[in-house]
Amino acid sequence: MIPSAFLYIIYGIVYGITAPLRAFSDVELPEGITSAITTMGTYLAAVEPILPIATLLAVLGIILVAETSIFVYKVIMWLIRRLPTQS
Fold this sequence. Notes:
Layout: H1 2-17, H2 19-22, H3 31-47, H4 53-82
């Protein structure tokens, strides 16, 4: 009873906050973009047995996460070295 009341309160708050966004009409992609995405899917389906696209995207994601982590680490270390010397 109490958890459901708590969830209803959260739902009401989120529903109230998003009310201005829900007032807009639905967004649709133009027909050209939709057909381009469909065509790209058919081309990638033909290449999929030779070159697994899902695996390549997963590896690319892992590499991007690693590189971003290294960049954030370097920025934080630069700030740690830089801030004590400021007067």
